[in-house]
Amino acid sequence: MAKTILHSADSRGHASHGWLNSFHSFSFAGYYNPERMNFGVLRVLNDDTVAAGMGFGTHPHDNMEIISIPLEGDLEHKDNMGNQTVIKNGDVQVMSAGTGIAHSEYNKNKTSLVKFLQIWVIPNKQNVTPRYDQITLNQAERHNKLQQILSPNPDDAGVWIHQDAWFNLGKFDNAISTNYTINKKGNGVYAFVLEGSFEIEGQQLNKRDALGIWDTESFALKSLSNDAEILLMEVPMSL
User: Fold this and answer.
1) Do 175 and 77 share a domain, yes or no?
2) What local confidence, expressed as pLDDT, does residue 124 receive?
3) Is the domain of 91 the same as that of 197?
4) What share of the chain is helix, strand, coil (3-state, %, to 5)?
5) How many degrees, rounded to 5, is the angle at CA 192 between CA 186 and CA 194?
6) Are both 19 and 130 inside the same structural domain?
7) Nearest by Cα to 132 from 80, 104, 96
8) How many CB atoms lie within 10 A of CB 2?
């Protein structure tokens, strides 16, 4: 029998800085909850909304795999490796911070919000050479099925990171069922609902609810609404 943990949307940490409205699935910055430190090597899942023309000034990171998934609007990225890019819905950005990087993130638009997920995964290698990549996905490939957007393999679909992790996005019509099979024994999956409703392991999940699932080889998920969208993050459960 799979083990599960439910994290409802309203149980997340919350920070409002005026220009930034952020919900934290795990302890982050001013939000500390010893029960919510991580899910395996998944350390941060921040659901951020940034006001028009505002953003995060240049700041450092090291020894972390950082994934950004834009949901709405245009997010401008600059870093000390010489990258200056804009990511938008349909893109996935990844940085291996390794020995250290510094970057900034701004809402490129002066009149509209930008919404994005910032995800940190603890790497399986320390002090790697810092790296940046971004890709644009064909969103049609996730209609009523799961589309792999991240893996450990540079030659596989999506971006890659220094960790035995696999991420998938899916967007479903109502009452569509699919199965997810764990890629690596001992991994678990953190399922995060972006839009609509799903049922997983007998549990109904609504927008921004999450369910952690582990000690299983596979599980079924079923959409309970039209345009139901979900992000599955498979990660090792041991740090």
Assistant:
1) no
2) 98
3) no
4) 5, 55, 40
5) 155
6) yes
7) 96
8) 15
Spell out, as residue ranges, where the chain has pLDDT lower than 70: none
SS3 state at 203: strand
* The residue to which tokens 């890709």 are assigned: 135
In this prediction, residue 65 carries a pLDDT of: 98
Total number of domains in the chain: 2
Domain ranges, residue 156: 139-236
CATH number for 149: 2.60.120.10
What confidence score (pLDDT) does residue 144 get?
98
pLDDT of residue 52: 96
Do 127 and 144 share a domain, yes or no?
no
**Per-residue pLDDT tens over the stretch 145-165:** 999 999 999 999 999 999 999
Residues 6 or more apart in contact with residue 89 via CB below 8 angstroms: 70, 71, 72, 73
- The per-residue pLDDT for 239 is 85
What are the Cα distances from residue 122, in Å, to 59, 96, 146, 153, 237? 18, 10, 24, 16, 11
CA gap 235, 93 in Å, rounded: 18
- Strands lying side by side in the sheet with 146-151: 3-7, 210-214, 187-195, 228-236, 166-172, 146-151, 159-160
So what's the pLDDT on residue 1?
Answer: 83
Q: What is the pTM of this model?
A: 0.98
User: Do residue 78 and residue 175 come from a single domain?
Assistant: no
Question: Which residues are within 8 A (CB) of 109 and not within 5 positions of it... i.e. 6 or more apart?
Answer: 52, 53, 73, 74
